[in-house]
Specification:
Elements (H helix, E strand, L loop, with lengths): L2 E2 L6 E5 L5 H13 L4 E5 L6 H10 L7 E7 L4 H8 L4 E6 L7 H8 L8 E2 L4 H16 L3 H19 L13
Parallel strand pairs: 2-3, 2-4, 4-5, 5-6
Antiparallel strand pairs: 1-3
Length: 174
């Protein structure tokens, strides 16, 4: 399932299995909205460990600047990638059937000192916020991304203000 928005992606979205795409597509959609080139691929820490090693070790050389890694259950993927690259790794816990994603969250967030994984919320919100976090990192050195991120945030604020609580001044009648 290798997907790419361009031939020179800045962000790598990886996940432990095809079923994780249901969550990770939210990161991809957010990056698309912001015009940030990315690639998406299944890279399992347990089923394809050599592919994981190759991916992590080659990421910087291939031009990636950030890796968003989503995994459920044991969720070792983000930590293993972070152990093999000094690129920022943003971890997204995928909701699991048995423990509702709490197991994934705890697995990703409990990294030893020296191997950071920037960890986000479980599921859709975490995937979106990981993409926004990646955009914020890129915006430090890319004015175009900074402008797009500022626009995204302004539109988000505008949407909230346009929908006040029913009965409040300015509320839309239903």
């Amino acid at each position: 399932m290798a997907r790419s928005s361009t031939s020179s992606p800045q962000v790598g979205i990886i996940m432990g299995s095809q079923s994780d795409w249901e969550t990770m597509v939210n990161a991809a959609d957010t990056l698309k909205l912001l015009g940030i080139p990315f690639e998406a691929e299944v890279v399992s820490a347990h089923r394809t460990p050599m592919k994981l090693k190759d991916y992590a070790l080659a990421a910087r050389r291939r031009g990636l600047k950030i890796i968003i890694a989503g995994a459920g259950g044991a969720a070792h993927l983000p930590g293993m990638v972070a152990a093999m690259t000094s690129l920022p790794v943003l971890g997204v816990p995928v909701q699991s059937k048995s423990l509702d994603g709490i197991d994934s969250l705890l697995s990703i967030v409990q990294m030893p000192a020296g191997v950071p994984v920037h960890t986000f919320a479980i599921g859709r919100a975490g995937a979106i916020n990981a993409a926004l976090g990646a955009a914020a990192i890129l915006a430090l050195s890319d004015l175009k991304v900074a402008v797009k991120l500022d626009h995204y945030r302004a539109e988000q604020t505008k949407a909230v203000l346009a929908n006040p609580l029913p009965g409040k001044k300015g509320a839309k009648k239903r």
